[in-house]
UniProtKB/TrEMBL annotation:
Superkingdom per UniProt: Bacteria
Protein name per the record: L-fucose isomerase C-terminal domain-containing protein
Gene Ontology biological process: monosaccharide metabolic process
Cellular component aspect of the GO annotation: cytoplasm
SUPFAM superfamilies: FucI/AraA C-terminal domain-like, FucI/AraA N-terminal and middle domains
InterPro entries: Fuc/Ara_isomerase_C (IPR004216), Fucose_isomerase_N/cen_sf (IPR009015)
Protein's organism: Candidatus Uhrbacteria bacterium GW2011_GWF2_39_13
Gene Ontology MF terms in the entry: intramolecular oxidoreductase activity, interconverting aldoses and ketoses
Keywords: Carbohydrate metabolism, Isomerase
């Protein structure tokens, strides 16, 4: 990803300046310079008034900064940050520090109060901002997370998702609005026919086929699949890999049935998992917003995501079972288990045709998300569910993971149904609910967090 340019604005009240404040400025700047994928554009001084800020604003404008880090070392006048934010039209990260130990004398910092006052102004002006509180050791990791979200939003502006064959029959949940998606997220859809994908298998290079077989078998054992099915899967995977380069794609959404199994002779679940493992997220059943959510997840976590359904829940234990039929990337396999390539458990009644890769997923914190449209299609929605994946056995064929919710399972499922959310979800590894809240704020998405 392209480096984020972060403007560092160190703010103080003129009559409060001491040698200690400049030392804190330098210490904070040094801490900020440890941020990953970030170039710090320093204001170069303790900023006291709007005249100073005006010159600095021109510098930030020339540098084409992506975000303003407004660090209130002490209280500061209320016109500086609102004026700069209005001029640059970039999100502001307010950074306030805890008040120094109070010893019965005058107030020393009043840092939080400064953020409180300035946040009100940006709120009234409908400008984007977020808030971080703490000293450098605790604040910089939080600043990193916010900057990662900004990088994700910027990255999406250049993303292309291949739509292989459109959506599957009857799945209205996989419909999408192409122009509206492009306007909101910057994401471009590229239609690719199933015919081209299949024909490409006949001309795939030997190098592509060798690489595809390595990816297909990586860490896996074979169950009841035949060599013919593995060869067909290898050729199809090579085709997807070559077409990814041809069309400059970042992700795929695939009409995975019925044509592949009916006419080509295999299911493609494991191939989608292989693509996802190559950092080319691939969503099942033609779900374009699912592929978009996978890109968001992987941008924010640096880990592959899991495209899945919620198939059952326990109101008493506040758990839910997430599952899909064999398209999870092998990197998500539960420790101690072996990914097994089997015939598909559903196609033609089950156990007739490969390829599905079966294993339970690893435990740990997860965040489930869904990008969606409002009923009137005027706004986009983002829904998130926070939980913890718990040790799950191979309860059924495919890829299961039981999740312990942090809220009532009944409340969650009622919200999903009452608000008409689609039945496809993307499971991100780790707790990124706060990151997704900021993402929704930046893009003005209607947010539901569970």
């Amino acid at each position: 990803m392209k480096k984020i340019k972060a403007a560092y604005l160190s703010l103080v009240k003129g009559s409060w300046i001491t040698d200690l404040l400049e030392k804190r400025r330098k210490t904070s700047l040094k801490a900020l310079e440890t941020l990953d994928n970030v170039e710090i554009i320093d204001c170069g001084q303790l900023v006291q008034n709007e005249a100073e800020a005006e010159k600095i604003c021109r510098k930030f404008e020339d540098e084409k900064v992506d975000v303003i880090i407004a660090h209130y070392i002490t209280f500061s006048l209320g016109g500086i940050v609102p004026g700069m934010a209005a001029k640059l039209r970039k999100p502001v990260l307010f950074w306030s520090e805890p008040e120094p130990a109070m010893k019965g004398k005058r107030i020393e910092a009043n840092s939080f109060c400064a953020t409180n006052m300035n946040a009100h102004a940006l709120w009234k002006m409908n400008l984007k901002y977020d808030f971080i509180y703490g000293n450098a050791a605790s604040a910089v990791p939080e600043i990193q997370r916010r900057i990662n979200v900004i990088a994700c939003v910027n990255h999406l502006r250049n993303v292309r998702i291949g739509s292989a064959g459109g959506r599957v029959p009857g799945f209205y949940t996989s419909n999408f609005s192409e122009l509206e998606m492009r306007e909101k997220f910057g994401v471009e859809a590229e239609g690719v026919t199933l015919l081209e994908i299949v024909k490409r298998t006949e001309t795939a290079s030997k190098k592509s086929l060798v690489k595809a077989r390595e990816v297909l078998m990586n860490g896996c054992v074979c169950g009841n699949v035949s060599e013919e099915e593995l060869n067909k899967g290898t050729a199809l995977l090579a085709s997807f890999m070559e077409l990814t380069e041809k069309y400059h794609l970042d992700a795929w959404t695939v009409r995975c049935w019925p044509e592949f199994s009916d006419l080509y002779g295999i299911g493609v679940c494991h191939l989608l998992g292989c693509l996802t493992g190559l950092n080319i997220p691939a969503a099942c059943e033609g779900d374009m917003y699912g592929a978009l959510a996978m890109l968001i997840s992987e941008s924010l976590t640096g880990k592959p995501s899991f495209f899945c359904d919620l198939i059952s829940f326990d109101p008493d234990g506040d758990t839910g079972l997430f599952w899909h039929c064999g398209a999870a990337p092998v990197a998500l396999c539960r420790k101690g288990c072996k990914p097994t390539i089997n015939k598909h458990s559903i196609i033609d009644g089950g156990d007739k045709k490969g390829l599905a890769c079966e294993f339970p997923l690893e435990a740990g914190p997860v965040t489930v998300l869904r990008i969606s449209e409002s009923r009137d299609r005027k706004v986009f929605r983002l829904m998130t569910i926070s939980g913890d994946g718990i040790e799950t056995e191979q309860l059924l064929k495919g890829n299961p993971l039981k999740v312990k919710f942090r809220r009532s399972a009944s409340e969650i499922t009622e919200t999903l149904i009452e608000n008409g959310f689609e039945h496809h979800y993307v499971m991100a590894r780790g707790d990124i609910a706060k990151d997704l809240k900021f993402f929704a704020k930046l893009l003005e998405l209607e947010l539901t967090q569970l």
